[in-house]
UniProtKB/TrEMBL annotation:
This is Adenylate kinase. PROSITE patterns: ADENYLATE_KINASE. Its EC number is 2.7.4.3. AMP binds at residues 31, 36, 57-59, 85-88, 92, 161, 172. It is an enzyme of class 2 (transferase). It comes from Streptomyces kasugaensis.
Length: 217
């Protein structure tokens, strides 16, 4: 299957993408991984992306599109793929359609993870990260540490990242509404969008998505 996964920040896209790709036996292709791979390998696109990022500027669409197209040329995508974080705007969606059409293939579905905005803010603004090990993540409501402000695993100090502050989260949501939400209507016109309620446990959301794709138990 060839799938695009969309949803607001805090919807759990990365987690669901990994589970769904595993269940469907297709590669999970995330924008973050594309950037890291191209930059670490020093590809021409990676060099261009790094130059923009080092200057504090957004990476142009054509660079991101080029990275995605290069990745989709790899042999492991022949049986399908799951795109996470790409496309993020109409220009990228149109470029993806053009690329796939040139290959004689098309998307099978666009999964839209639906989460109420207040829940998104609660999920992200409530996160607390360990200063000693950023892999240790807690939440003031959903995963409380035994001692407030102290990591259960290593005893490090827990803190709130600037990106997780409520005002920043709401700004990120504004960007999502402006830039990314329009691609949902774009794909609805192609009858590709499947809306998945993303509240509940991770495995419950995965089961909903798999059932919607006709791959449920």
């Amino acid at each position: 299957m060839r799938i695009v996964l969309v949803g607001p920040p805090g919807a759990g896209k990365g987690t669901q993408a990994a589970y769904l790709a595993g269940n469907l036996a297709i590669p999970h292709i995330s924008t973050g991984d594309l950037f890291r791979a191209n930059i670490s390998e020093g590809t021409p696109l990676g060099v261009r992306a790094k130059s923009y990022m080092d200057d504090g500027n957004l990476v142009p669409d054509e660079v991101t599109i080029g990275m995605a197209e290069d990745r989709l040329e790899q042999p492991d995508t022949a049986g399908g793929f799951l795109l996470d974080g790409f496309p993020r705007n109409l220009k990228q969606a149109e470029a993806l359609d053009g690329f796939l059409k040139g290959k004689g293939i098309a998307l099978d579905a666009v999964l839209d993870l639906e989460v109420p905005e207040d829940e998104v803010v609660k999920r992200i603004a409530g996160r607390r990260i360990c200063r000693s090990n950023s892999a240790h993540v807690f939440h003031v409501e959903y995963q409380k540490p035994a001692t407030e402000g102290v990591c259960d695993t290593c005893g490090g100090e827990l803190y709130q990242r600037d990106d997780d502050r409520e005002d920043t989260v709401r700004k990120r949501l504004e960007v999502y509404h402006t830039e990314t939400e329009p691609i949902i209507d774009y794909y609805k016109s192609q009858d590709l969008v499947i809306t998945i309620p993303a509240l509940g446990k991770v495995d419950e959301v995965t089961r909903r998505a798999m059932a919607a794709l006709g791959r449920g138990e």
